[in-house]
Amino acid sequence: MPNLSPLVAGTWRLHEQGWSAAERLRWIERCTDLGVTSFDHADLYGGYTVEALFGEALALRPALRERLQLVSKCGIRLPGHARGAARIKHYDSSAAHIRASVEHSLRALRTDRLDLLLLHRPDPLLDAAEVADAVAALQREGKILAFGVSNFGPQAFELLDAATPLVTNQIELHPLRREPLHDGTLDALQRRGRRPMVWSPLAGGRLLAGDESPAAQRVRWVLGALGAQLGVAPATVAYAWLLRHPTHPRPVVGTMREAGLQQALAALSLRLDAEAWTEIWQAGAGQEVA
Amino acid sequence: MPNLSPLVAGTWRLHEQGWSAAERLRWIERCTDLGVTSFDHADLYGGYTVEALFGEALALRPALRERLQLVSKCGIRLPGHARGAARIKHYDSSAAHIRASVEHSLRALRTDRLDLLLLHRPDPLLDAAEVADAVAALQREGKILAFGVSNFGPQAFELLDAATPLVTNQIELHPLRREPLHDGTLDALQRRGRRPMVWSPLAGGRLLAGDESPAAQRVRWVLGALGAQLGVAPATVAYAWLLRHPTHPRPVVGTMREAGLQQALAALSLRLDAEAWTEIWQAGAGQEVA
Amino acid sequence: MPNLSPLVAGTWRLHEQGWSAAERLRWIERCTDLGVTSFDHADLYGGYTVEALFGEALALRPALRERLQLVSKCGIRLPGHARGAARIKHYDSSAAHIRASVEHSLRALRTDRLDLLLLHRPDPLLDAAEVADAVAALQREGKILAFGVSNFGPQAFELLDAATPLVTNQIELHPLRREPLHDGTLDALQRRGRRPMVWSPLAGGRLLAGDESPAAQRVRWVLGALGAQLGVAPATVAYAWLLRHPTHPRPVVGTMREAGLQQALAALSLRLDAEAWTEIWQAGAGQEVA
């Protein structure tokens, strides 16, 4: 595993901020100063624009690169964009796509290497040997330092991991999506000693506001009550819920606001006990444990 | 695997009998005389009272201990009891809980060792290395002789088994709950040569009476018809259905009545053929095999 | 793996043709001349009649046997037939049934060996060691050359493969049944380097006509549009969809018409791109990929 920071900054919404390159650089620097030195990209974020916005900012202070770990993804092709070149959204885990996407990412990010490349989705046409060869070639050339996957179930993980070691599986996990706790996804990672990354740790913000489903309301109430008791924000409790897992997940923090980042960072020194953790699980599930 | 008897006596309902210690001892002796020398406990049975009721009886004739195999479980904490010390029902597979629970079980059962300790449920926060260390220490001290799990799916079983050998998985299996036959749970046990234990072999009695769902009625009818044909009780056919599985399951017999125990024992010399077995499966499933 | 042809001729409907032995021989010869030299049987096809119909034809020209690969299956027993000898449909993976079924198949097919024997369904009472012993004995005697399974999920496959190597898993796969792409069945085969066989590649013809469900209509429309664009029949596109999978599946062609066989053969030189493949997947699923 590349030496990622315990929290990873998500760039998913970077293009929505309307920031100048200098403002983007300031955000990168602020994250870095706070110890969040790893940045999570994908080729297609922002309609294939985010990597270049990031790279443009990084070009204002190239020496910063050495302090950062850059993660990107490939394997999905979107219609309506030159880089996707697709009629319909589809997966592509061919060697040609992987190489082309990585080389495009390197140019856009204005760097010579990705610290970590992830295959974005489990392609049903995945040819494990072909992917392994593509990865090995990119690693020999120094273009990627490590390789992993995202959104893989345990069987697809085992298939590809047997062909090329997967350092992580970036999964969606939060109290409203608990499946990876129970379907073997996290069991398989723990057995192999791999640390997951977690996207959407706050369910895209729905844990805190905007989702008025009974489950979301219950989770929000419990996060608020535990936060009040522990003297922290509800979001901090939500991050602590993830960090409590024995696989030591690395959450990808999607907020661009410093206050949000600070709430995530506060979770690094908060260990929930099993009972508080279960209260949150139970609020999401709408039932007590069996 | 400790040398458990082919049938295991369940103690789940021991506290409901209103028996004196002498009566409880008589029940233990009767089971033992019939070859049912293994007793299945859990820390929390009877609201954390059953182990002590059993131990009190055993103290009337301590030499009996050498003829018995004592199984207990830990890993669930219930509210409303000093020993659970919980606000809500939750799982706890921490080393501290495992040790504390085992030591409490030994005192309550008035014995120096458990022949087998089971982790009661697959805790989503299970730290396999921590559990393995706790188990190893308890085994070194002679406090537990063997270790296994209960209610684990195949992936969680594989995770923990890689850290510490699991001698069994005690699962719920009967014609109204056939999932372990098809979801990989029993496949994983057979592949590793481990014998399951089976709780609720008569679906808590619903196979015989009280459940008027179409499935239960169908199963009851088939058990009755096969029993009439074979000259045994319907319950005997239900036990034989379990014993027919190639993993050689050990049913946990919940009845405290000797007649019920005898019906279970009769199944040990009854081998159903595949067709009779399938008639029962089909009655539970409400459809023929594919 | 025995050296099966890329397409396998299904014999499922041989008894429905009303053909003389000479006509059946002509069909076998025509398949063989077109490179379809493998024939897929099961003991119970045609109510246990198809193997004998095939064998009778083969007896007209015994030397043809050396050019053929004969596959058969056992493990299901059907009521209403002397060979099934059953009150209800049930599975039987006992050594006795396997041997009896193979020996019956050899007599009916008028051959001294099966190139490949498949266990037809995952019997919940499967005893892997017993099956492995039965298979080893039949292989020693030269009665079967290779062994595999049909309709097995990944856990049951792993169980039996650990006891005796399984050269294939013959599964149902088509755009209206995509589960094996996502439930680990094909992942497990790819990881072990085993080629699946595929039954019902056209969903029993429903891909082309007769099924007016929205999903079937969508699939039919896409197969037609892609076929028109590529200058091939819709059925050819459907076969190409299967052949595109990295496990190199061998479809079992059910049609007895030469035109249908030619449409299947045309797929061997047609490689769909990932996007066209996904259009078909999407038509079956009724949604785009995640």
Automatic annotation (TrEMBL), chains A, B, C:
NADP-dependent oxidoreductase domain span: 6-281
Domain of life: Bacteria
Signal sequence extent: none
GO cellular component, one term: cytosol
Residues annotated as transmembrane: none
Family annotation (InterPro entries): AKR_Detox_Biosynth, NAD(P)_OxRdtase_dom_sf, NADP_OxRdtase_dom
Coiled-coil intervals, chain numbering: none
Identification of the protein by name: Oxidoreductase
